[in-house]
Design goal:
two-stranded antiparallel ribbon, 15% helix, 1 helix, two-stranded antiparallel sheet, elongated, 59 residues, Ribosomal_bL28_bact-type, ribonucleoprotein, alpha+beta, Ribosomal Protein L24e, Chain: T
Length: 59
């Protein structure tokens, strides 16, 4: 699966637990967006999580 190019955030694994405590495996996916970042004078399109997009926008 995809990962954030800035922080490396990927999928998280865990259990979905119902009210009667039946357990099912599930994954949580990060909110990745395509973003164009300028690295060393070149435009590069990468997948970046929204938290990193907010951080870059503030700088």
């Amino acid at each position: 699966m995809k990962k954030c190019a800035v922080c490396g955030k990927g999928v998280s694994h865990g259990n979905q637990i119902s009210h009667s405590h039946r357990v099912n495996k599930r994954i949580w996916k990060p909110n990745l967006q395509k973003a164009t970042i300028i690295l060393e004078g070149k435009k590069v399109t990468t997948h970046v999580c929204t938290k990193c997009l907010k951080t870059v926008a503030r700088v």
